[in-house]
Amino acid sequence: MKICLINNLHKPFSRGGADRVLEIARDGFCKRGFDVFVISTKPYFLKYDDDKNYYLKSFFHYLNKIPKLIRLFYHFADFLSIKKYLQIKKILKKEKPDLIITHNFKGLGLLVLKAIKNSKIKHVHVLHDIQLIHPSGLMIVGKEDMLESFFTKIYYSAVNKIINSPNLIISPSKWLMCEHEKRGFFQNSKKIIIQNPVSIKNNFSLKNKKDSAINFLYVGELEDHKGIMFLLNAFNKFSKNKNIKLSIIGKGSEYDKIQGLKNEKVEVLGWKTGEQVKAAMQNADCLIVPSLCYENSPTVIYEAASLGLPVLASRIGGITEIIHYLGGTLFEAGNEKDLFKKINYILKNLDSLKKIGTNSKYKINKFSVENYFEKLKSEIDQSNILFT
Length: 388
Prior knowledge:
- 40% of the residues lie in helices and 16% in strands.
- By secondary structure, the protein is of the alpha/beta class.
- It has two domains: 2-197 and 368-382, 3-Layer(aba) Sandwich (Rossmann fold); 214-365, Glycogen Phosphorylase B (Rossmann fold, 3-Layer(aba) Sandwich).
- Helix 3 packs parallel to helix 4 (112-119).
- The longest helix is centred in the first third of the chain and has 15 residues, at 17-31.
- The termini are close together.
């Protein structure tokens, strides 16, 4: 059986959790003997070819460097990209996959959905954020009414007509599925909740540190909506008389600004490989996820839980669902005082939190790659999208 995976980013251009989920899914399908290829994007001016996968030229990779006003024109052009529609239509006709699994479309153009619909190939769509509802894919705390603006309603009504009803819709969180359902999406699709898969390696565990300081760790995109600037400013205020440190791993548009704000208690490590992130987690005491945007199901929380690392995270979107199951501490998103209160609680109850972290290491097995694929296979079979 041949499977086509479609996502706007794929390695070596991966950035976030959705891209890691696609890579885990691709590896899982390949190990099970399926013929898999990926359709994704590459920076427009970069020469990069892959014998197995397809990378379409896209300005999406430069979006953070484009002024906000010009981005509006980009979003419009991306929405109606006839060129990418024809390219993807040609690829699907050539490869003739039995099943298409889509993730994020930004940079590929939403007309890819029309190409899929016209191909009459079985279609599974995996939700990761609200890109189908708002072109930014983001809903920021305190700005929730942006989704009810006149132009946003026009946008998601048009998208709704284009995507129509794929055979199966998968969401890692009930919150994200509800956000789409209440706006009329996927009325004739089968809809299920399957948490993102986690690549679990039981040979990893937290180390006994020589450093007496309590080490907090941030791993993610260095973008304002991820709460990194909020966290850094708050941490610099709070840490003056505390024996605590903060390590920051990631890349993004705020990198240079963050470098200017670091001090002896804050280290900025830049981008790291998956193995290097795990090593950093082994030496940390607590992961902080300070998102200001409504997250769906951050992969980094699953990764921390697989190592038994306690988590402190914003009470927002699908994060709440994960923490309620795996255990951890929540604070009000964007609320500095509540963040201070919860950090103080962690400092006084670190042993108790470590026990919660240890328990999460066992609970996370529910989300293993093996369990994910068994559930995915079962749901696809029940939806008459047959695996052979």
